[in-house]
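Severity: low
Component: inverse-folding endpoint
Summary: output formatting inconsistent between runs
Steps to reproduce: submit the following structure tokens with default settings.
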């Protein structure tokens, strides 16, 4: 999985509010600081003059001037502004090693039964009836990476149902960041998809010849209905349906996140059916992924076959996109600047765009380094017998940054250690196929650790809830808290450990949840996709 959140944060919409606010606050503070410094200087000057005039002790007088001159230099950044985690790591390492770990949390399974169990039950709930006649063809273009495409696909099923339309299996838009040319059938099992939904929505692999001919055999000539994000069903019925009836086909591109979270319950259930039952990876992906899960379990014999998976977002593109500083040297600055220009040409140089790495870090927006992830997990009680699967693309400066994580977790695995290069040959250069392997291995782990919000953990958490009785068993770090701890030069291991255990408990209580109307069904499949079972 190379590359950042193709998620909302990448389009900058979600993040804009707080970031703007932080910037504004920064400016106000800067202004205040400057005024305060000027005031201090003036006072000091007056005091010094007074001292000279009265012939007072020069020690005190000089001291005041020196003190007052200090704010002219940059004030020290507040805790959590600068990356210094490697210093804390070196400091606590001996203590970390000396402390006997309590039983590994993997062995004290926390699949607690909370009253009644939740189980998948979509098929039971969906009523099957004759398919109504079709109002026309719906053509959508799925943009983004693997899981953003998943949103488009499942929502396209929902919209086809709302409109009584025939869906053409979605085309994947070639993304400038993900750069994967795979087609629907390369990633997903297309026949299974069509067959699983057969009783609810008509799906065809291609537009029929006569319709295609009408549009000059060119998909791009089908009128594109530009649709606002999260449009309600009424928009589709009032705006899209008349056009579809008139032309026989309509196109919506881009299509991701174009349908509201809140839709009628029968449509919601179709989203469940599409996401959890109809969408399965293509055979070549499934076979390798299942083999890799098997190997992972075998290599986790010290913990009864259970393993932890981490979605580690520390690829070059991710670090560049975050605008965070780590080493802060020239080499890093150049690498980041180049990566930003490569994937988001000009975006970071637009007028008014202020990049503030220190504020980003304090606000918990910086990708965790492998070292930070390792310390966090050790603090949470996962000891060196834990086998760890690291899901990621090419880690930025891997040799340097992965070493401490391997030191803390010698039983670390990746795609490259679980599969041979021959096995991976079909996948090379295809970020979505590689992401599909990561997705499967993370899905089957005992505990999943996310490090950055994006569509990958969003879908994975939902899928894990669906598979594991409603509980996501996902660790979601509180990064604005972590940066404070990682920037405390006096912290002791015991103290750090306590904080981490609190964080783990907090994640655990959040693992279980019922969807509210404005939340995503792909993250919270209860109660729409699941039913409560009698206590066993
Ligand atoms: C779709 O078909 C159902 C069942 O025949 C019908 O009740 C509904 O009004 C139709 N909707 C549209 C938009 O054609
Ligand atoms: C398809 O149509 C689009 C838009 O009308 C046009 O720009 C493009 O050149 C066409 N492509 C081909 C292969 O004719
Ligand atoms: C884990 O650490 C202990 C104590 O430092 C050491 O004896 C043991 O060999 C380590 N286990 C692994 C799998 O590295």
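Observed output (run 2 of 3):
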């Amino acid at each position: 999985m190379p590359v950042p959140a193709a998620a909302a944060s990448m389009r900058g919409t979600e993040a804009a509010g707080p970031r703007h606010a932080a910037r504004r606050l920064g400016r106000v503070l800067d202004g205040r600081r400057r005024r305060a410094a000027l005031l201090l200087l003036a006072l000091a000057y007056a005091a010094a003059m007074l001292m000279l005039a009265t012939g007072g002790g020069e020690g005190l007088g000089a001291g005041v001037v020196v003190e007052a001159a200090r704010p002219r230099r940059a004030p020290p950044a507040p805790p959590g502004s600068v990356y210094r985690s490697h210093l804390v790591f070196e400091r606590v390492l001996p203590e970390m090693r000396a402390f006997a770990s309590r039983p590994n949390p993997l062995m004290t399974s926390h699949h607690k039964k909370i009253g009644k169990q939740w189980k998948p039950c979509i098929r039971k709930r969906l009523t099957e009836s004759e398919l109504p006649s079709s109002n026309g063809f719906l053509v959508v273009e799925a943009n983004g990476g693997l899981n953003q495409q998943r949103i488009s696909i499942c929502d396209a099923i929902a919209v086809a149902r709302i409109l009584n339309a025939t869906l053409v299996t979605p085309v994947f838009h070639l993304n400038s960041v993900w750069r994967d040319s795979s087609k629907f059938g390369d990633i997903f099992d297309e026949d299974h998809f069509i067959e699983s939904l057969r009783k609810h929505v008509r799906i065809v692999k291609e537009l029929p010849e006569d319709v295609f001919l009408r549009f000059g055999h060119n998909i791009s000539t089908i009128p594109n209905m530009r649709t606002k994000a999260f449009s309600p069903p009424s928009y589709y019925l009032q705006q899209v349906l008349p056009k579809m009836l008139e032309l026989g086909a309509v196109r919506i591109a881009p299509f991701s996140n174009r349908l509201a979270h809140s839709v009628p319950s029968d449509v919601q259930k179709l989203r469940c059916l599409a996401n959890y039952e109809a969408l399965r990876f293509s055979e070549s992906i499934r076979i390798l992924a299942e083999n890799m899960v098997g190997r992972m379990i075998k290599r986790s014999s010290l913990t009864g076959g259970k393993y932890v998976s981490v979605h580690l977002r520390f690829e070059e593109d991710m670090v560049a996109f975050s605008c965070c500083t780590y080493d802060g040297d020239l080499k890093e600055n150049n690498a980041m600047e180049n990566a930003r220009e490569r994937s988001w040409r000009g975006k970071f140089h637009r007028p008014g765009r202020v990049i503030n790495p220190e504020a980003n870090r304090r606000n918990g927006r910086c990708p965790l380094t492998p070292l930070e992830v390792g310390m966090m997990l050790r603090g949470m009680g996962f000891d060196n017998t834990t086998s760890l699967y690291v899901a990621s693309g090419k880690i930025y400066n891997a040799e340097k940054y992965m070493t401490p994580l391997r030191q803390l977790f010698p039983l670390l695995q990746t795609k490259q250690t679980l599969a041979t290069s021959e096995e991976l040959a079909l996948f090379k250069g295809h970020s979505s196929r590689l992401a599909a392997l990561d997705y499967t291995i993370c899905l089957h782990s005992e505990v999943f650790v996310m490090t950055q919000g994006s569509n990958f953990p969003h879908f994975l958490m939902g899928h894990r809830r669906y598979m594991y009785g409603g509980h996501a068993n996902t660790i979601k770090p509180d990064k604005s808290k972590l940066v404070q701890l990682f920037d405390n030069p006096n912290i002791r291991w015991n103290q750090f450990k306590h904080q981490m255990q609190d964080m783990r408990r907090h994640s655990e209580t959040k693992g279980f949840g019922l969807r509210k109307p404005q939340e995503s069904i792909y993250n919270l499949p209860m109660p729409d996709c699941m039913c409560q079972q009698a206590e066993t």
